[in-house]
From TrEMBL:
Enzyme class, UniProt record, top EC level: transferase
Pfam family, one: Acetate_kinase
EC number annotated for this UniProt entry: 2.7.2.1
Pathway(s) per entry: Metabolic intermediate biosynthesis; acetyl-CoA biosynthesis; acetyl-CoA from acetate: step 1/2
Subcellular location, principal: cytoplasm
UniProt KW Magnesium keyword: yes
Record protein name field: Acetate kinase
Cited PROSITE patterns: ACETATE_KINASE_1
Described purpose of this protein according to its UniProt entry: Catalyzes the formation of acetyl phosphate from acetate and ATP. Can also catalyze the reverse reaction.
Amino acid sequence: MTGDILTLNAGSSSLKFAVFAPKDSKQTAHITGKIAGIGRAPEFSARDANGMLLVSDQPTVFSPTSTHEDLVAFLLDWLEHQLGNRTLAIVGHRIVHGGQTFSQPVRIDDTVLSELDGLVPLAPLHQPHNLATVRAVAAWRPDLPQIACFDTGFHRTQDTLATLFALPRALSDEGIIRYGFHGLSYDYIAGVLPDHLGPKAEGRIIVAHLGNGASMCAMRNRQSVATSMGFTALDGLMMGSRCGALDPGVVLYLLQSKGMSPAEIETLLYEKSGLLGVSGISNNMQVLEDSDAPQALEAIDLFVHRAASTLAGLVAALGGLDALVFTAGIGENSARVRRSICARLEWLGIAIDHVANERNETRISMDASAIDVLVLPTNEEAVIAAGCRRFVEPSAV
Ligand code: ADP
């Protein structure tokens, strides 16, 4: 392959992108960037491989009504100029839900696209934006092959037991099972674990992906054994604006006794709950950490309480724990959240070095800790780029 790989990660309010050289053993993007503020006031920024800002701008063609199609057109045009005599060869997308059909990266054609459309109800906040971006690239650059890389894929190694709800079997048979998400992030971390843990990487590991969306994954032999998210990306940990695990009776009560519509409940659970709902202040952990309001403190405490309880449950799924890894925005940057979660898990034998933790060092456990505790930056884009390379150069993987 001679051209570059473009990775796209489309959310409701942002479109993140990265450009990788066709062959790069270090898997470092030579351009990364995003369009943020989609639907409000879109802003464009991009950086080079050294993190130097290439551009930070509110282009005149952007408006609050700019669609994903408009923004993708802008991005492809900008990239063409920026890349000079280099060209794009392939585009890889983060697709949140692959259902039961897709576990590995797949080339997107009309049949694949319509199957992915059918999964929109399972990820209503993410999948439509992912697919709108696929369609936009197809409209502007129909010559470019497009590859779907799935957030659910990493978890397909789980035993049936870990995926079942205690529902009538007919419902499980039709696909109402626990899928799990954040698989691209877990895949990346699984890939770098041996660099940090040596042979212990094949042991019992829990990775805590704590970002705006948050989940945990229990791994053995660097494969998913259990995870906190389920049928949709609502389950499990408390998140920025999502509720996490909830007694299903609450949904029935909201429907039957409070007369809320399904659409209102969807908005409540996905967009008005979590850190935002409990604090009434923000979905952003950093803002809450900077606040003196008791509601902010309670929201952080609940986040920590739920995270520690979920983690303890996953230890049972693994039959013990050798290492704990924190990743994503909160996991990589919030010393306070890591310290508080670990403090609740001292009974497991976790002992962290508070100085290393405050400095966001890679290893934050004390030498005497029974469990290694690491802070590792995730890189979903690198996993998408690797997925694309398989299509153009099967021998490269
Ligand atoms: P997304 O799931 O949208 O990719 P990120 O992984 O970027 O989200 O994580 C965003 C979260 O990380 C926000 O809650 C943000 O406040 C939090 N975060 C980032 N930096 C810090 C920090 N220094 N201290 C505390 N929280 C942080």
